Amino acid sequence: MNALAILKQRIKATPLAIPYIAAVNTFGKRRHSQSDEAAVLGRIISALGQVPKIFIEFGFSGWEFNCIALAQDRSWQGLLIDGDAYNATIARTIYHRGIEAKQLWITLDTLDHVIRYAAGREVGVLSIDVDGNDYWFAKHLMPLRPAILCVEVNVSMGLRPLTVPYDPAFDRTKKHQSWEYYGASLTAMHHLCRESGYSLVAMSGNGVNAFFVRGDLLTSALRVLDPQEAQRPKIYPNGSIAPTERFWEGIKNMPFVDVSA
After folding, report:
1. pTM of the full structure
2. What is the pLDDT of residue 27?
3. Buried b (16+ CB within 10 A) or exposed e, 130-167
4. Which of 141, 154, 166, 221 could make a disulfide contact with 47, Cβ separation 3.0–4.6 Å?
5. Domain spans, the chain
6. C-beta separation of 91 from 69 below 8 A
7. pLDDT in tens, 92-119
8. Minimal CA–CA distance to 78: which of 96, 57, 55?
9. Distance from C-alpha of 152 to C-alpha of 182, rounded to nearest angstrom
10. What is the pLDDT of residues 17-55, one digit of tens each?
């Protein structure tokens, strides 16, 4: 960790955190998605034409999340949820009043907050990236019927139709020393979404996030994909490719749920 990163971590732990956030925002800190997720979402929204301008995203960083371009557009409203109080503080400081940011540890029980937020609204985008119970949260929230679902997948599971079992206290840093035991495969997510009337239409450039569109909204501008053609290697920010087969060898004896069974 370089000196600037260390300084930022120390500031975040002090009462200077809020002034620091405001100062950085004033000088135009770059805000972006992890890979090209914001651009992919933009293309899908353009292809669909009319999309309800409500998004919900949980598992986010104040400076980096999938719906960040929507959060900066005052015509959109959104709900951001993360277990880290600092991320929620950043979002409340930076984004307009139509964006609600909340610190909350997400479980199937606390998802009631998301359901209450969505009550009486049509959701345009639902984005899930929690490095753990992603499959179970997506399944629980399918009745919201978002126009677009963006969900993280675990490439280390390959094309096996697997997810980790639900655990309300899931923490990937404690489940396995590799940190590669989490979430669900693209095939598992595709199985869930297809059964719920959604089609796979895109993957992020780094191979981490899958994008699904509700079937009644599909247009000829979007090509429906299957997991075999959509799956791609996981690419780290430095451009290196994750050794997914080696990761699988390390986690293959851990507990899994076969969602196709």
Report:
1. 0.88
2. 45
3. bbbbbbbbbbbbbebbbbbbbbbbbbbbbebbbbbebe
4. 221
5. 1-30, 31-258
6. no
7. 988 999 999 999 999 999 999 999 999 9
8. 55
9. 10
10. 555 555 555 444 444 445 789 999 999 999 999 899 999
